[in-house]
Amino acid sequence: MRAPTHVIVRFIDDNREEFGVEPIIRALSATDAKIALSTYYAYKSRPESSRSIRDRQLRNTLRAIYDDNYSCYGARKLWAEINRRGDVGHVARCTA
Questions:
Q1: Which among 49, 65, 54 has a CA at the least distance from the CA of 89?
Q2: Among the four 21, 22, 91, 96, which has the fewest Cβ within 10 Å?
């Protein structure tokens, strides 16, 4: 099974100073983590999606609510509390 693109790109970024981008991609082509050079550069130039920005914001808010309540809240209480606060707008129950 192939690793997600963001994991492969992070691996390349972590090792690019030592080995360079193209040699890493050539080495990865012999594994299940194949990625095209154009895919790597397209991923690097693509702006972050609004969905991932909102998910990150919700994750931080939900973590704060969870920690503020002695790490006892489950999904239902987290969902109710985040909607009660209203500082991030309405959140669907399946999101929380």
A1: 54
A2: 22
